[in-house]
């Protein structure tokens, strides 16, 4: 008599899968660093051996000088650090419709002893002036702020209001 | 008289069959978003605060330079001298052509040192920089 053998069920026990997954999940939760890198972006000029000076008309330049005490000189007049934005903004606006070779150049020059924080605050002011002008222009022409514009329109605004910041080398570096 | 308790005869269980799936989904999300910290920061620094800051879109392009309160400069895993920056950053740039250098400089540093680093970066053709700053509220 042939005994009918019962086939053993071939199942992988899956009840512990959730536990294993939770363990892995916990590891990645703990190991994740979600600190986004934020900061003020800039592009440095290329390094050239002999610096040739280009004459720029006075009205195109906004020269900012910062000394070691944190005093700011904007085009020869002393202004408080936190008013740089208000002083520069009208000048950016007045040059929106000019061709690209006549846009405003903001030049920042510091002393070797100037505090880094002061320098970043000044750059921040300049950037804010530009960003606000861009937002206002986008609002007037397209009815929404800069970061909600489609790519082509964004490009137009960027062309109209380019951010040109020139970092002057401190005297002692030039020699 | 006997009171029959009125009770719904539906089961009172939360279905847990899909739990592993949900957990795996979460797991995958965290696995994809995780960038493990590669270096130990050896210098002490406090970032400046600013309002008009941008996010760096691509984390993998970033290369960091730390400058601490003690005016020491750190690249990757070691403290370096000012003169070595050019060599290191040039190698970095050859590995990643459009590298963004994130300068994590302490608030109290003098501009002289920052300018020197910038000069070295210019010589190494690492022209895209980012002054790391936290948002001011």
Could you characterize the architecture of this molecule?
The complex is a heterodimer of chains A (175) and B (137). Chain A has 175 residues and is α/β, with parallel strands linked by helices. Helix content of chain A is 38%, strand content 15%. In chain A, helix 3 packs across helix 4 (151-160). Chain B is built from three helices and eight strands. In chain B, the strands form two sheets. In chain B, strands 5-4-3-6-7 form a five-stranded mixed beta sheet, with helices on one face. Chains A and B meet through helix 1, strand 1 and helix 3 of A and helix 1, strand 2, strand 6, helix 3 and strand 7 of B. Strand 1 (38-43) of chain A pairs antiparallel with strand 7 (128-132) of chain B.
Named CATH architecture of the domain at 49-135 in chain B:
2-Layer Sandwich
Oligomer: heterodimer
Overall body shape of chain B: elongated
Order of helices and strands of chain A: HEEEEHEHHEH
Main beta sheet strand tally, sense and closure of chain A = 5 strands, mixed
Helix run count of chain B: 3
Strand order of the largest sheet of chain A: 4-3-2-5-6
Task: Compute the number of helices of chain A.
Answer: 5
Helix-strand string of chain B: HEEEEEHEHEE
Overall strand count of chain A: 6
The overall average pLDDT of chain A, rounded, is: 82
**Gross morphology of chain A:** elongated
Largest inter-chain contact set = A-B, 47 and 54 residues
Distance between the termini of chain A: 108 Å
By helix and strand content of chain B, what is the structural category?
A: alpha/beta
Question: Can you count the beta strands of chain B?
Answer: 8
């Amino acid at each position: 008599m042939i005994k009918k053998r019962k086939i053993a069920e071939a199942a992988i026990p899956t009840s512990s899968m959730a536990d294993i997954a939770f363990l892995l999940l916990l590891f990645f939760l703990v190991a994740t660093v979600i600190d986004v890198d934020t900061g003020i972006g800039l592009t440095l000029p290329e390094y050239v051996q002999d610096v040739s000076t280009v004459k720029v008309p006075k009205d195109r330049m906004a020269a900012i000088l910062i000394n070691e005490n944190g005093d700011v000189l904007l085009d020869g007049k002393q202004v408080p650090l936190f008013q740089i934005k208000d002083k520069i903004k009208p000048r950016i606006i007045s040059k929106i419709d000019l061709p690209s070779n006549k846009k405003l150049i903001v030049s920042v020059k510091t002393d070797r002893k100037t505090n880094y924080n002061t320098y970043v605050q000044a750059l921040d002011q300049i950037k804010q002036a530009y960003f606000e002008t861009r937002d206002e222009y986008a609002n007037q022409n397209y009815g929404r702020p800069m970061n909600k514009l489609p790519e082509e329109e964004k490009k137009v605004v960027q062309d109209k209001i380019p951010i040109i910041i020139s970092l002057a080398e401190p005297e002692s570096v030039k020699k | 008289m006997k009171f029959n308790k009125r009770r719904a005869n539906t089961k009172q269980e939360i279905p847990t069959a899909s739990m592993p799936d949900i957990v795996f989904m979460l797991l995958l999300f965290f696995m994809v978003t995780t960038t493990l910290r590669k270096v130990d920061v050896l210098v002490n620094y406090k970032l400046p605060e600013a309002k008009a800051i941008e996010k760096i879109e691509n984390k993998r392009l970033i290369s960091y330079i730390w400058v601490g309160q003690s005016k020491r400069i750190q690249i990757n895993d070691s403290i370096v001298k000012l003169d070595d920056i050019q060599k290191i950053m040039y190698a970095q740039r050859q590995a990643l052509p459009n590298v963004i250098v994130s300068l994590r400089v302490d608030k109290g540093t003098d501009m002289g040192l920052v300018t020197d680093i910038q000069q070295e970066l210019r010589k190494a053709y690492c022209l895209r920089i980012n002054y790391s700053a936290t948002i001011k509220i």
